[in-house]
């Protein structure tokens, strides 16, 4: 029904207003409509905060006989808030339209069962592909029980990522930089290798886009990180994955994985800790290792128009299916595999 799609689009638009504040929860929006009149709307605005349905119904006095459009199956579990399916039943809506079912085992179809048992008509799958796209990291994690991995790197036009001596070069412009920070806020963790950490002294936090900072991971098998680095000196947590070294100093933790199957063990650690998504920000060796040994779901290249002539080569990846966007006069943003979320 066309009306269903129009209202669901509204719910999806609202969902995305959760921006960089909801990870590792999904983006969820909800609109309540009766006789084509909008009675209320809301979205999940913050991790641990009220669910979309709670916000949508907050100011509604009478929703009897209304239709609730929810971009994700209403929850059936008592988590940080009571089950949203119960809230819809209490308000006596007569119909619930859902974009995607919730693969989270806590919910997994039971939201629908609960609603139907209460005599509410339930319709699933309106604009399902759009919902799948915006919450692709959440869905991937719950279906596969392993983190969704995005690789991101920035290059010159001649495909170098740094100067020959390893010194960093700023390829991004203010627009692509904002998008990078948006990506950081939308991933649960961010990862670099020790060479990038030592060469760039990055902080890996979210600054030029509103949102939370990801958990910071460094792959440092031989524990070679310079102790003066921001990653070791600031007040935020950093997890350093080594072969042998195991210790804790304040918010900094060194985790020993052994030298055999190191990357596999790292993934095992992430699965155990339920890390939903990881943004890999370099460098070339780390990115190539993930592409060769681990399944990567999304690749993003920022390509500058600048020519370096020589330097450290970019990862050897062919972006055959990439969508390309021009950002400003001197940057291209290429996205491959998972669809882009620039819309
Ligand atoms: C959300 N927002 O609007 C909906 C969610 O820890 P809790 O209690 O916040 O529950 C989180 C789970 O609830 C989440 O993983 C998803 O399965 C379900 N639905 N979550 O954060 C919402 N509707
Ligand atoms: Zn809920």
UniProtKB/TrEMBL annotation:
Catalytic activity: 5-amino-6-(5-phospho-D-ribitylamino)uracil + NADP(+) = 5-amino-6-(5-phospho-D-ribosylamino)uracil + NADPH + H(+); 2,5-diamino-6-hydroxy-4-(5-phosphoribosylamino)-pyrimidine + H2O + H(+) = 5-amino-6-(5-phospho-D-ribosylamino)uracil + NH4(+)
Pfam short name (any one): dCMP_cyt_deam_1
Keywords, in A-Z order: Hydrolase, Metal-binding, Multifunctional enzyme, NADP, Oxidoreductase, Riboflavin biosynthesis, Zinc
Entry-linked InterPro entries: CMP_dCMP_dom, Cytidine_deaminase-like, DHFR-like_dom_sf, Eubact_RibD, RibDG_C, Riboflavin_Biosynth_HTPR
The EC number(s) this enzyme carries: 3.5.4.26, 1.1.1.193
Cofactor binding note of this UniProt entry: Binds 1 zinc ion.
Pathway per the UniProt entry: Cofactor biosynthesis; riboflavin biosynthesis; 5-amino-6-(D-ribitylamino)uracil from GTP: step 3/4; Cofactor biosynthesis; riboflavin biosynthesis; 5-amino-6-(D-ribitylamino)uracil from GTP: step 2/4
Cofactor: Zn(2+)
CMP/dCMP-type deaminase domain residues: 2-113
GO function term, MF aspect, one: diaminohydroxyphosphoribosylaminopyrimidine deaminase activity
Family membership noted in the UniProt record: In the C-terminal section; belongs to the HTP reductase family. In the N-terminal section; belongs to the cytidine and deoxycytidylate deaminase family.
Main function: Converts 2,5-diamino-6-(ribosylamino)-4(3h)-pyrimidinone 5'-phosphate into 5-amino-6-(ribosylamino)-2,4(1h,3h)-pyrimidinedione 5'-phosphate.
Protein name listed in UniProt: Riboflavin biosynthesis protein RibD
Lineage, uppermost ranks: Bacteria, Pseudomonadati, Bacteroidota, Cytophagia, Cytophagales
Name of the gene this protein is made from: ribD
């Amino acid at each position: 029904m066309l009306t269903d799609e129009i209202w669901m689009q509204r719910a999806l638009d609202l969902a995305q207003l959760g921006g960089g504040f909801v990870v590792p929860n999904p983006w969820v929006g909800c609109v309540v409509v009766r006789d084509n009149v909008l009675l209320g709307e809301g979205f999940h605005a913050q991790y641990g905060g009220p669910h979309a349905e709670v916000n949508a119904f907050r100011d509604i006095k009478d929703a009897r006989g209304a239709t609730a459009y929810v971009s994700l199956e209403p929850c059936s579990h008592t988590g940080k808030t009571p089950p949203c399916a119960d809230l819809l039943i209490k308000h006596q809506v007569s119909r619930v339209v859902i974009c995607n079912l919730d693969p989270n085992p806590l919910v997994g179809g039971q939201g629908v069962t609960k609603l139907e048992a209460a005599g509410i008509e339930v319709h699933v799958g309106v604009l399902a592909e759009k919902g799948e796209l915006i919450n692709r990291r959440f869905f991937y994690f719950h279906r596969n029980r392993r983190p969704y991995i995005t690789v991101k790197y920035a290059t010159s036009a001649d495909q170098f990522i740094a100067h020959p001596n390893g010194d960093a070069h700023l390829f991004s412009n203010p627009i692509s930089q904002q998008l990078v920070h948006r990506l950081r806020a939308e991933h649960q963790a961010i990862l670099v290798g020790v060479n990038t950490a030592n060469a760039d002294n990055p902080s890996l936090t979210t600054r030029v886009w509103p949102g939370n900072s990801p958990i910071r991971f460094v792959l440092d098998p031989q524990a070679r990180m310079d102790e003066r680095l921001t990653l070791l000196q600031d007040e935020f947590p950093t997890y350093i994955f080594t072969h042998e070294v195991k210790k804790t100093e304040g918010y900094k933790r060194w985790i020993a994985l052994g030298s055999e199957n190191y990357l596999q063990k790292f993934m095992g650690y992430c699965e155990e800790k339920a890390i939903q998504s990881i943004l890999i920000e370099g460098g070339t060796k780390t990115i190539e290792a993930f592409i060769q040994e681990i399944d990567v779901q999304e690749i993003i290249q920022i390509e500058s128009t600048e020519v370096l002539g020589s330097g450290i080569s970019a990862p050897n990846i062919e972006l055959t299916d990439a969508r390309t966007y021009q950002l400003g006069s001197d940057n291209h943003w290429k996205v491959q595999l998972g669809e882009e979320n620039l819309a």
